[in-house]
Known about the structure:
This protein has 143 residues and is an all-alpha fold. 57% of the residues lie in helices and 0% in strands. The protein is elongated and about 75 Å long.
Amino acid sequence: MGKLIKNHWARLIVLTAAAYQIVAAIQGFFWPKIFWDFATKNFDGAVKPVPILQIINLIFGICILAWEWPLGIVTHSVLHRSIEARLVVYPLSALVAILLYQGTNAGLYYLIGVGVYFWAFSEGEIVCPVPWTLPRRYMVSKV
């Protein structure tokens, strides 16, 4: 069997989380509810009458979906190849997703994806410039 490429696995997890976050944001427009409303009603202003949290979730979901797929503009960029940038942005997206009642699963998926990306980063994996490819091995010949 081959070696597990953890950044590809994390990419699939985060793509699932981003798609789930987009769907949760759209559902939040119709059924606005903050996750912590059982404890306090102070945060209800973030979801109704103006759907601020839903819009933020929709923007995060679309941007991360474009980053991970990746969109043609993002391909070959430093941002696309940076695991460090992902380790900074995805916890913020998880926080925003967990605040919305419909987005709690997406937030948990983001946290799992961050854990796998950290595992890949700690083992020295790199994200290739061309999406879904393997890093090239350079053969060193003995003279």
